[in-house]
Amino acid sequence: MASVTLEKINKVFGSTHIIKDVDLSVGEGEFVVFVGPSGCGKSTLLRLIAGLESITGGELRIGEQVVNDLPPRERGVGMVFQSYALYPHMTVYENMAFGLKLAKTAKETIEERVMATARILQLEELLHRKPKELSGGQRQRVAMGRAMAREPRILLFDEPLSNLDASLRVQMRNEIARLHHRLGSTMVYVTHDQVEAMTLADKIVVLRDGRVEQVGSPHTLYQQPATKFVAGFIGSPTMNFMPAELIDGSAEGCRVRAPGLGELALPQSTDGQRSGAGLTLGVRPEHLRLAEAEGDNSFEIANVEYLGNEVYVYLEPKAGDTLLIHRSEAPSRWKIGQRVALVPDLDHVHLFDGDDKALAIAKQSQAA
Amino acid sequence: MSIPATEGAPQAVRPRQAGYRGTKVRRQRVRAAWTFLTPMLFALALVAGWPLLRTFYFSFTDASLSDTTSALFIGFENYLVYDDGAWYGLLTDPIWWRSVWNTLFFSVVSVSLEVVFGIIVALLLNAEFKGRMLVRAAVLIPWAIPTIVSAKMWAWMLNDQFGIINHLLMALGIIDSPIPWTASATYSMWAVIMVDVWKTIPFVALLVLAALQMLPKDCYEAAEVDGIHPVKVFFRVTLPLITPALLVAVIFRLLDALRVFDVIYVLTSNSTSTMTMSIYARQQLVEFQDVGYGSAASTLLFLIIALVTVLYLYLGRRQLGVDQ
Ligand SMILES: Nc1ncnc2c1ncn2[C@@H]1O[C@H](COP(=O)(O)OP(=O)(O)OP(=O)(O)O)[C@@H](O)[C@H]1O
Ligand SMILES: [Mg+2]
């Protein structure tokens, strides 16, 4: 177990700047998840920590030690690859024992550790099989077992579940969560699936174009996204965004006008914004209420999806072409083609300024 | 623990296979296979089967090159015959056995060296560096030159009086007097082995390189994270994974080496210290005009190569995937 600290980490491949000034600290025993869209540099950042890529600038510490120039084997990390990277010609046992054997570990210790790991991951039945005789989920467990058997200080996972089917993914997600609970080791986990991030993480790091967009607990990221990007990335179905215009505002709160919603009084402080400024209003699908249409403020229902326990109602937007989503418990009385009024829950409305930064809730109204 | 699992698998498969054998689909596939195979089999019978059978036949006659039509059947006399209290025939000829030994020695040594150097060259070519494509093309040159040409070239370089190799070695002070590389009984075998190795390294290297590029790259990163020394990774990961390709390269080379003729004939002609089975057979057939005796040698050559091949395939069956 060890902590990891990144200070102003940069990575340049040839002439492309991939990782830009990343600051981050991973506490001892913490489960940190990197999320972000494809190509944002998640894998690269993980490989920098593992030592598989050289660091262009900045300082990386594991525990108290600066490890910028240490080769992977001296960093005490274990890594689980997206493709599992099992040695195809070795059995499950040999795969797990290989690293230990070549580190000249005593034979009994090897046996003991491999068996203990196999027991935790329920691999005992499979020890004498070759990787090609295993299912995807079993291979995935072997890959984890191999990384764990060496008892590294930090376990790194690069999208370990992305090759599995949906139900197995949910099952393995649970097993990883339980494993972390049991072992208590420091884990850094890369995924582009925000559900995995939300369910596993103590701390989520949202990356975008090689920069850290926001760091926080799943709860913080869901309730208080710092930018429109994070707001749109976390949560499923995604947050609804609508253009809005600032009528007037102060440090205590503001009034905005949004097409289709009319005038809303919101608790956000709009210090530094001129009235008439263009803002973006964000509401999660569950923080909307549908009501009978009255006057101009109405939306047409484009589609209704029934999912058993809940219903998604899709509405034609007033601007842009992303349908608005309303989510409620089943059953629902709304039909395609009907016109309805949208009533947002004002305590859960997010406001973003022209630079897509979230506007903070005014202190006074927070207390209230 | 794993026994019930592995036992279950064949049982599940067996009934399906039995049913499959009798189905219409199966019969159609067999018919299609024969349709495609027949022209090839016919061509092979014509260009390989027929000459081979004729060679077998001639080996039991006293045919001579000037007149093969009036050959008489003499049974095994070309191979072995007891006459006047002494044994005669191919099987008693010490020069034949010398040729067999030379051939086997040449094959084993040259193929081994080619494999070792081929792997080394392939590993070098597999590394990332500037101008890699150029080097890859350049490495192919020895393989692209016709053997006769490269053998002649080497014959000149190895020439005891005018050859550049003696010149260089003497200039460097490694030897005092010129070495008759291709004429001396001590050096000539090594000279031909060297030329053959020089020529065939590219072939082995390219086959191995192809195998190296198929290797799962992520395994190496896993090994790096696991802290395994690169040399160990080579012997424990790379080598086992490229073994199937290596075995294929070896069998190609072995079949070539066992019937080697051109390099040796150009470099050392009919010298007994490097005479191989092919050269022996040619000498009997063409120079001594004895088609019957030469055919007997060719027949044995065929049997020995066939035996080595069968043995090799049997020993390497697991890696080559023959019995799967
Ligand atoms: N060795 C390399 N040389 C040059 N560019 C690279 C290299 N490795 C990655 N990149 C670039 O760095 C960027 C980030 O890559 P990375 O693999 O970290 O993305 P990712 O966030 O893991 O994406 P994904 O979710 O698709 O795995 C990409 O634009 C990629 O093209
Ligand atoms: Mg990636």
Automatic annotation (TrEMBL), chain A:
The keyword Nucleotide-binding applies. Pfam families: ABC_tran, TOBE_2. Residues 4-234 form the ABC transporter domain. Signal peptide: none annotated. CDD domains: ABC_MalK_N. It comes from the Bacteria. Gene3D superfamilies: 2.40.50.100, Nucleic acid-binding proteins, P-loop containing nucleotide triphosphate hydrolases. PROSITE patterns: ABC_TRANSPORTER_1, ABC_TRANSPORTER_2. One of its GO terms (molecular function) is ATP binding. Keywords: ATP-binding, Nucleotide-binding, Sugar transport, Transport. PANTHER family: MALTODEXTRIN IMPORT ATP-BINDING PROTEIN MSMX (PTHR43875), MALTOSE_MALTODEXTRIN IMPORT ATP-BINDING PROTEIN MALK (PTHR43875:SF3). This is Sugar ABC transporter ATP-binding protein. It comes from Litchfieldella qijiaojingensis.
UniProtKB/TrEMBL annotation, chain B:
Keywords: Cell membrane, Membrane, Transmembrane, Transmembrane helix, Transport. Residues 100-312 form the ABC transmembrane type-1 domain. Pfam families: BPD_transp_1. The chain crosses the membrane at residues 32-53, 104-125, 137-158, 190-213, 233-255, 293-315. InterPro entries: MetI-like, MetI-like_sf. It comes from the Bacteria. It is found in: Cell membrane. Its main location: membrane. It is a multi-pass membrane protein. PANTHER family: BLR7065 PROTEIN (PTHR43005), INTEGRAL MEMBRANE SUGAR TRANSPORT PROTEIN (PTHR43005:SF2). Belongs to the binding-protein-dependent transport system permease family. This is Sugar ABC transporter permease. It comes from Litchfieldella qijiaojingensis.
